[in-house]
Specification:
With 142 residues, this protein is mostly helical. It contains two helices and four strands, in the order ββββαα. The radius of gyration is 47 Å and the shape is elongated.
Length: 142
């Protein structure tokens, strides 16, 4: 039985060196190249047209149909009212207030400020009373 011929080089392809194209045509491993750019192809890259192999990029460039019709530019659309009246639903108003965590922090800050005022007021009274006592002591002549 004769070995099939490689379509690229027209020499016999033996079973141990055969690489199959999409239509099961055997090629030599060295002959599996793009017919356009001569890039070595892998089984994932092979595209075949009339027994000639192409890489994906060359196949698309050579055989992909070219668009001759230009797409029209996008147009802005105008929204018109229904029966001359726009019906717009009002957006829900979300009232934003302090979160419970913010309220708690504010209460703690107010309590700390009040405690500070009380502590400074007591300290001022202690100093005044201490000063009075010292004056009394001095006026006694001790």
């Amino acid at each position: 039985m004769l070995s099939p011929l490689c379509p690229a080089c027209s020499t016999p392809v033996f079973a141990n060196e055969a690489h199959m194209a999409a239509d099961r045509t055997p090629f030599h491993k060295a002959c599996v190249k793009c017919g356009h750019c001569k890039k070595t192809l892998t089984p994932a890259d092979i595209n075949e047209h009339e027994k000639q192999l192409f890489c994906r990029v060359c196949y698309e460039n050579v055989f992909r149909p070219r668009a001759t019709i230009k797409c029209p530019e996008k147009k802005k659309m105008q929204v018109l009212p229904v029966q001359g009246v726009f019906k717009v639903k009002p957006k829900p108003v979300v009232e934003e207030g302090p979160t419970p965590e913010e309220i708690k922090q504010k209460e703690m800050a107010e309590a700390a400020a009040k405690a500070w005022e009380e502590a400074t007021a007591i300290g001022a009274n202690v100093i005044k009373t201490s000063a009075v006592r010292i004056e009394e002591v001095l006026s006694m002549g001790l």
